[in-house]
Amino acid sequence: MAALTTAPSVEAATRLVRQLVEQRLVACGTVIPGALSSYWWQGAVVDEQEVVVILKTTAARWRGLVGALPALHPYEVPELIALPVVAGHAPYLEWVRRETESLRKAGGRRRDGKRQGKE
């Protein structure tokens, strides 16, 4: 599954992703700066620059993500929506599953193919 959220800055988004990865709630978060969002907030239309964040996780970790993200997020009402992954590269999907299955340090190979802990 993929999840979307937004953040007010690259720094806030990077901090959020790092915390979620460390908690094994997501395997990866991709930070995409430069979005312009327009929305109703407190009775007025607001136009703001935001950062889009794509979180890669599993359905099994969704409940934990929903529980953790609001406390870590700088927004009063953070966006968090789930998008189903209907297909994908099997080794990548297995990597996402493996990296989110527990709080233990995952072994084996990193996503880039290098051994864990080796450069």
Short description:
The chain has 3 helices and 4 strands. The protein is an alpha+beta fold and 119 residues long.
Q: Can you lay out the helices and strands and say which pair or pack?
A:
Blueprint (H helix, E strand, L loop, with lengths): L1 E6 L2 H13 L5 E14 L2 E13 L2 H14 L8 E3 L6 H11 L19
Antiparallel strand pairs: 1-3, 1-4, 2-3
Supply database-style keywords.
disordered C terminus, 4 strands, four-stranded antiparallel β-sheet, alpha+beta, 3 helices, 32% helix, 30% strand, 119 residues, Alpha-Beta Plaits
Description:
- The protein is α+β, with helices and mostly antiparallel strands and 119 residues long.
- The chain has one domain: Alpha-Beta Plaits.
- The chain has helices at residues 10-22, 59-72, 90-100, and strands at residues 2-7, 28-41, 44-56, 81-83.
- It has a four-stranded antiparallel β-sheet, covered by helices on one side.
- A hairpin with a 2-residue loop joins strand 2 and strand 3.
- The longest helix is centred in the middle third of the chain and has 14 residues, at 59-72.
- The protein starts with a strand and ends in a 19-residue tail after the last helix.
Radius of gyration: 15 Å
Spatially, the strands of the biggest sheet line up as: 2-3-1-4
CATH topology: Alpha-Beta Plaits
Tally of helical segments: 3
In the CATH hierarchy, what is the architecture at level 2? 2-Layer Sandwich
Secondary structure tally: strands: 4
Classify the helix fraction into a percent range: 25-40%
Biggest sheet record = 4 strands, antiparallel
